[in-house]
Design goal:
Layout lengths: L1 E5 L12 H9 L4 E5 H4 L4 H14 L2 E7 L11 H21 L3 E5 L14 H19 L5 E5 L12 H11 L4 E6 H7 L3 H8 L3 E6 L14 H10 L5 E4 L7 H7 L11 H20 L1
Parallel strand pairs: 1-2, 1-8, 2-3, 3-4, 4-5, 5-6, 6-7, 7-8
Helix pairs in contact: 1-3, 3-4, 4-5, 6-8, 8-9
């Protein structure tokens, strides 16, 4: 298994320069750096190619993640909105191909975070979403790109809330480059059992996000990491595991993730790096040994 981290651990905005974090991730012991699709889609080609070259130099795999905004909702009953989302995702995948990024996860099947002031028509949205993801998967296939649909808690979305629902969704899409993406933070809210959720997902699992229930780096909370690791090994999972800690207040990231208090113990830049490097070692011991 390869262990990675999301760039936003260090950042307060989603659309930033990802370049410096490639070498940083390598220096701290990671195999993967996950970046925001939102910051990649409109990046000039020369900068995309620079990211690719730097990742190759540092021996880092790049992956991407995005929660589509409301005006790009590919599950929308408004056909113009749906088509805008499809066009955006295709443009993003063009940039991914240029950057040699072969995997994108997140809420790429609807929008995030959900607006619950509006009525929910789940079955209608589900059918539209499946049609959209099939189209995106067919576009992604010749590029060697896999789509991983993130299972998130009920407060952030309503289409896919647990592993069983995600697996049914992926089966209904019926494309071999569409997989389930589980996330320990969301599983902590929605699942009866981490072990059962992972084992029952089985070969449909394509990406795994990890983080503590308090959003701190793995190892600084109460997640049952040994149980999670046991389940992953039991299904023969040998894919990507990316930590997604959010510990700093402020900016678009802090607002969207709802970080309303400092979770870093007032860490400076050096201490942030030390904490996540220690967590990387912890994760490699738990998952890879």
């Amino acid at each position: 298994m390869k262990i990675g981290t999301y760039f936003a651990y260090w950042e307060k905005e989603w659309d930033v320069d990802f370049f410096p974090y490639i070498s940083k991730a390598a220096e701290l012991g990671f195999d993967i750096l996950e970046i925001s699709g939102g910051g990649l889609a409109d990046l000039p080609d020369d900068k995309v190619l620079a990211l690719r070259k730097e990742a190759e130099r540092c021996g880092i795999m790049l992956t991407a993640c995005i929660g589509l905004p409301k005006d790009l909702d590919v599950s929308s009953e408004n056909e113009e909105t749906r088509q805008n989302g499809i066009a955006y995702m295709k443009r993003l995948m063009d940039k991914m191909e240029l950057a040699n990024i072969r995997q994108i996860g997140g809420i790429i099947y609807a929008y995030w975070p959900v607006d619950y002031s509006l009525p929910v028509h789940k079955e209608t949205a589900r059918a539209i979403s499946i049609r959209s993801v099939r189209e995106l998967a067919d576009y992604a296939k010749p590029k060697g790109i896999t789509l991983t649909l993130e299972t998130v808690n009920r407060f952030e979305q309503y289409l896919i809330n647990d592993a069983a629902e995600a697996t049914r969704f992926v089966k209904d899409i019926d494309r071999d480059n569409v997989k389930v993406m589980l996330d320990s933070f969301h599983m902590n809210i929605e699942e009866d059992s981490f072990y059962d959720a992972i084992v029952n997902t089985g070969s449909y699992l394509g990406h795994f996000h990890i983080g503590e229930a308090n959003r701190k780096v793995p190892g600084k909370g109460r997640m049952p990491w040994k149980e999670i690791s046991q389940a992953l090994h039991e299904i023969g999972y040998d894919g990507t595991i990316v930590m997604e800690p959010f510990v700093c207040m402020g900016g678009g990231v802090g607002s969207d993730i709802k970080v309303w208090r400092d979770l870093s113990d007032h860490a400076d830049a050096r201490k942030l790096d030390e904490d996540i490097a220690q967590s990387c070692r912890f994760c490699k011991e738990v998952f890879c040994s």
